[in-house]
UniProtKB/TrEMBL annotation:
Pfam families, alphabetized: UDG
Active site: 203 (proton acceptor)
Domain of life: Eukaryota
Protein name, UniProt field: Uracil-DNA glycosylase
Role according to the record: Excises uracil residues from the DNA which can arise as a result of misincorporation of dUMP residues by DNA polymerase or due to deamination of cytosine.
One of the record's GO molecular function terms: uracil DNA N-glycosylase activity
Domain Uracil-DNA glycosylase-like: 188-348
Amino acid sequence: MKCSNQLTSMLRGWAGHISIRRSYIKPLTTFPPSTESERFTRHFHFHSQFQKPDMSSSSAPSKTLMDFFQPPSKRIKTTPTSLLIPNSNDASGSSASLSVDQKSRVDYNKHLAKSKRNLKICLDKVSNSKGFVKLEELLVEDTWLEALSGELQKPYSLSLSKFVESEICNSNIDAVYPPSHLIFNALNSTPFDRVKAVILGQDPYHGPGQAMGLSFSVPEGVKVPSSLVNIFKELKEDLGCSVPRHGNLEKWAVQGVLLLNTVLTVRKHQANSHAKKGWEQFTDAVIKTISQKREGVVFLLWGNSAREKSRLIDATKHHILQAAHPSGLSANRGFFGCRHFSRTNQLLEKRGIDPIDWQL
């Protein structure tokens, strides 16, 4: 109360200089703790606190002397609505926040990662092996292992494996393409349950660095072969796709386009050198399995060799598109103008299946 009497005396002394109405000063009750008093003395000037408020310029309630002794109110931290992120546990919320393009990108990246993982498994097997890795160990995609259960253990497959081993280990043969870890790249890159379309080729490119286990495809940095150049020309005419600077068709494979050669290995500079050794029987089994266990797959058969495989496909369940081979010798005899790429997407969309993004 001593402090209260001192303040009252001070206010009376200032009355001659500053007109203060009783209505603006509320009676003091108990003096706040010394720490609050020190804070008040340190941060505020008494003269400014007891000026008559300007009621005409502000509608806010006037502050009393005791308001300055109260502890500061806590500010509530708010988050702008534009920065709110849905709860990761709320699947419907997070899914709804993604556009169709974003969902497609997420799906593509997920399956690309799986394809890369399969490739690394095969590469590690070959790198860590002291000798030839059997063919049955190089097919690692689980969906194909289930769909083709026992196929690589059949007598013809075991004989084929021994043949490929003898070719790779033969010092008189410069090289066998593609590298061992890429022999089943088509199947390891395109899971059985994701196959939307099949583009059949013949045997792998037989030039150095060309073959990568995907029909018609070459790694980036390798000159684009004439057949693939013509494929890109047709794509441009059909869908308006710009011509890419590379020939890597991995993007198609990851989306569900099975880029399957009918023969999966070849000697360097010797086309068809591994034909009729067992590969045709294996790839026929792949085509039959798709025909029997799947529906609505689009088969793109270019050239006479590919057309012969139509007998393995149930045309009542699947779509078969046929045209001339895209090589420089035959592209003008029915490949150009076939519009197989747009027709494939139309057929897929009719079944409610996402179309292929053919642009590389």
